[in-house]
C-alpha cells in the first residue's frame, strides 16, 4: 500500500490540536445525523466533556440502513469464519439490516426500551454482532461480557449494569472442549442481587441447553413473531454501550461510550489509522467481549461500509498454524489486526512458518498489533511471513481507538520497531514526571493525555462519576492518566514499557492482580497472598500467587495450590490463566505494610532486584526466589521472558 506523505498526518494533528471544534466538526460530516449538533465540543461541565451535544443520530442506522439506502445492500457486510463449527456464513448489508431490525423488534417485544441495559454473553457468532446492533437500533445500552469469564464475574456486571435482558448462547466451542454457557449464565443470575426478568438464548447445533420456563426464550421463537423495528433517534451524548474492564480492585470499571463521538472517531480511525476504504475487507482476530472487538470487529468497519470478518477459531489448533494465512486468502483480507500473543503462539509451534507456505496473501496491505507490548522478534517474524508492514499501536478499553500509531491512512511515519507510534490527531500525549511536568525525551514517566480527550473516548464510568475522576483525572491536574509508563524518543515516537499499577496483561487480556488475590485470599487456609504478573514467553505475562498459610496449617501444599487454581477458574474463569502458586513463609512489605510487588516481580522475572529503601526486612527474599524457582521462575537465563526492550534507542 502506498501511504500518503507524512504531511497529511501533520496537518490533521495540528488541525485537531489547534482547532478541535473545526477538525472534528469536519469529520462529523461522514456520519448521518438526524439533527445537527449545537456545539462540537461542550466544555461547560469540565472535566466531563461532551462531543456533538444537541445532535441526534442512530449508530445502527449508520452501520446498516445508510449503506443499503446508498445502493450497497448486496455488498458483504459480515463473514463468519468458524473452523470450530466447520462453517463459513456471509451476510450482505441487506441481510444484516433485515436480521438486525427483526431482532431489534424481538427485544423490544420483551419490553426493552431506549436507555435500558442489555447484557450480551456470547461466543464469536454473527448473532453477537446482530444483538449489539439491535440494541443500538432501539437505543438500548449493550454490555458485552467476554465468554471466558465465569458466573461470579458475570454476576458483578449484571449487578452494576442492572440489565432488563440478557442475550446468550447455549455454548461456545474451544479447541478440544465445548463450553456450556448456559449453566454459567444460570449461576450468574442466581448470584446476582439484580433480578433479570428475561433471557434470549440461541441454541447452537453443537450443544443445546435447557431453557427456564417463564424466563428464557429461544432466539428463533423470539424473532419468529417479531416485527422489524425502526431506528430510534438517540442523543449523541446518550450511551451506546458499557464495557467492563479491569481496575486495580476486584470490582470492574464500566467504561461508558457515547453514540455521537464514538461514530465520528470510529469512522475517522478506520480511514486514518488503518487506511481502510469502504470496499475493503477488515479482519480483527479478537473477541467481541473486548474493546478491540467492539471497535474493529463491529462498529468501525460497518460504519465505513467495509466487510468485517468474525473469526471463531484460534491462531493454532483450528486446525493448524496456517489458519491466519488461510483466512486471509479465503476472504481476500486487506487489513488484519490481532494481538502479538497470537503470533507468538504460531511461532512457537511453527518457527519456520511452514504451515503458512502456499497461501496467497497478496490481498493484505498491513498487519496491526495491539493489546500488549509487542516484542521486536514477534513483529519481525510476522512481517517476514506475511510480507506486509507490521504496525504496533497503543490504546485502551477507555479510549476505543488508537492513542498512538503509525497511521497508514494519513502517512507512514517510519516508526521504529518496538515503538507504539506517534500520537494520533486529537490526543495530546505527555510523559510526566512525579511533579506532573513533562520529562525530557528519552526519560521514562507516566503517560498522560491532556484533557479534553478526543471523540470516542470514555465519557465516565457507569453509575460512578466519582471513581472516573479518582481513577483517571485526579493524579495530574488537567490530564487523563493512562496507567502506562514509557518515554518519547527524539522523533516523538512513544515507547510504552510497563503498567504503573497492579494491572497485568495475559495473552492480550487485561486482568487485575487484585481480583485474583481476592479469590486466593478467601481460601480457608490462606493468611495472605500477593499476585504478580510474571513474564511469560507466550502470553506476555502470567499471574503467579505467593501465598502465606495460616499458622498451624499442616495440609499438603500441593493440594492447597490445586484448590486455589480451581477456585480462581471457578470465580473468574479460564481467561485468568491462573496455574501457578507457591507457598512462602512471609511476604516482603514496606514499613507502612504494603507488599513490595515490584520487587517480587523482579525476582520472578530473574531481573536485577532493586530493594526499596522502605522495605521492612529483606531477609526473606532469597527464600522467595527459591520457592519461585520450583515452578520455573526466578531464573536469570532470560528463558521465561520474551525479548521486549532490545530496541530501546
Ligand atoms: N469462552 C470460554 N473460554 C475461553 C474463551 C471463550 N470465549 N476464550 C478463551 N477461553 C479459555 C481458553 O480455552 C483457555 O482455557 P484452558 O485454560 O482450559 O486452556 C483459557 O480461556 C485461556 O485462554 P487464552 O489465554 O486466551 O489462550 P487460548 O489458547 O485460548 O488463545 C489466543 C490464545 C492468542 C488466541 C488468545 O489469547 C487471543 O486471542 N488473545 C488476544 C486477545 C485480544 O484480542 N486482546 C485484545 C487486543 S487485540
Ligand atoms: P485493554 O484495555 O484491555 O485494551 O488494555 C489496555 C492496556 O494494554 C494498555 O493500558 C497497555 O498496558 C496494554 N497495551 C495495549 N496496547 C499496547 C501496545 N501497543 N504496547 C504496549 N502495551 C499495550
What does this protein look like?
It is globular, with a radius of gyration of 24 Å. Helix content is 31%, strand content 23%. It is an alpha/beta fold and 649 residues long. The protein has two domains: 6-313 and 393-486, 3-Layer(aba) Sandwich (Rossmann fold); 501-629, ANL, C-terminal domain (GMP Synthetase, Chain A, domain 3). It binds coenzyme A and adenosine monophosphate. The site of coenzyme A (COA) has 26 residues, from strand 10 and helix 12. Coenzyme A (COA) is lined by residues 123, 147-148, 172, 174, 179, 286-287, 290, 292, 314-315, 338-339, 341-342, 345, 370-371, 507-509, 539, 574-575, 577.
Give a quick rundown of the structure.
It is built from 18 helices and 33 strands.
Within the CATH hierarchy, at the fold level, what is the topology of the largest domain? Rossmann fold
State the CATH architecture of the largest domain. Answer: 3-Layer(aba) Sandwich
CATH class descriptor name of the largest domain? Alpha Beta
Q: N- to C-terminal separation? A: 28 Å
Number of strands: 33
Structural class: alpha/beta
Strand order of the largest sheet: 6-5-18-17-19-20-21
As residue ranges, the low-confidence spans are: 638-649
Could you tell me the mean pLDDT? 94
For this structure, what is the CATH homologous superfamily of the largest domain? ANL, N-terminal domain
Strand count, sense and barrel status of the largest sheet are: 7 strands, mixed
The number of distinct helices, counting runs of at least 4 residues, comes to 18
Gyration radius (Cα, Å) is 24 Å
Shape: globular
List of distinct ligands in this structure: coenzyme A, adenosine monophosphate
